[in-house]
Structures are given as C-alpha cells and as structure tokens.
Write a structure and sequence with these properties.
The strands form two sheets. Strands 4, 5, 6, 7 and 8 form a five-stranded antiparallel sheet that branches. The chain has a three-stranded antiparallel sheet with strand order 1-3-2, with helices on one face. By secondary structure, the chain is an alpha+beta fold. It contains three helices and eight strands; from the N terminus they run H-E-H-E-E-E-E-E-E-H-E. It is globular.
Length: 131
C-alpha cells in the first residue's frame, strides 16, 4: 500500500456513506494519533485500539445525529500525498470552512490540529481536512 492515510480516510468515508456504526482499520501510530484527534474534536463517538496480530487494528464507533441520522463528519479530504507533499508554516495555516473544520498536521512536535500548531508557532505537513 502506497498511502495508508488515504486508505484510512477512505475506509471512514465508505463506512459513513453506508451508515455503519463501527469501522475497523489497520493500525499504525500515525492513524492512532489521527483517531485521537477525531475523538477529541467530537467527530467520532469512541475508539478502541486492539493489539492483535502483527499490526493490530483500530475500531472506530462513528457518530451520527440521533434524529436526522447525519454523520458528524461531512467530508474527509486528503491534502498531502506521497506524490505531492503539502507543507505549511504557522503564519499561512489553512483555514477549513472559515475555522469550522479542522486541518490535521504532522509536525515536529507530533500530530495536531491547525489551531494547536498555530498556538505553538510551528508548521508541518498538512495531512487532511475534516469537517
């Protein structure tokens, strides 16, 4: 697999479109950090890391509105990819839907949101946009 982050986002996107409650994704440290951010920001209901087999898996419980059955995640977009990396400094941090969404960055201090990176005044590779 050439782009495991794109695969992770596609699995989430497909599970949301099919209205699944839970999705399982092969684990990696980067995917675990992205999952923690999605949980902290309220985009997923819950998650569980299963250390089974050589790689392990991540079980993610998706979050839907109880009345309208609309997912908390409207869009997942991969920004930086293996063929074309996208980097940003803290001064020109991308704004996702005028600050309503989040951009997830991989920085020298770890994986974090665009707002956290701007507070710490560090830039990094823009992994994806979530809203």
């Amino acid at each position: 697999m050439t782009d495991p982050i794109a695969d992770y986002l596609t699995r989430l996107r497909n599970a949301i479109m099919a209205k699944h409650k839970v999705v399982e994704v092969p684990a990696s440290n980067l995917k675990k950090e992205i999952t923690k951010i999605l949980f902290d920001k309220g985009y997923v209901l819950n998650y569980k890391f299963i250390e089974e087999g050589p790689q392990g898996t991540i079980k993610i419980a998706l979050k839907y509105d109880s009345e309208t059955k609309v997912s908390a995640i409207q869009n997942l977009t991969r920004v930086s990819r293996p063929g074309l990396r996208k980097y940003t400094g803290y001064k020109d941090m991308p704004r996702v839907i005028n600050g309503l969404g989040i951009a997830i960055l991989s920085t020298s201090k770890g994986v974090m949101t665009d707002k956290e990176a701007a507070e710490l005044k560090i830039g990094g590779e823009v992994l994806c946009y979530v809203y």
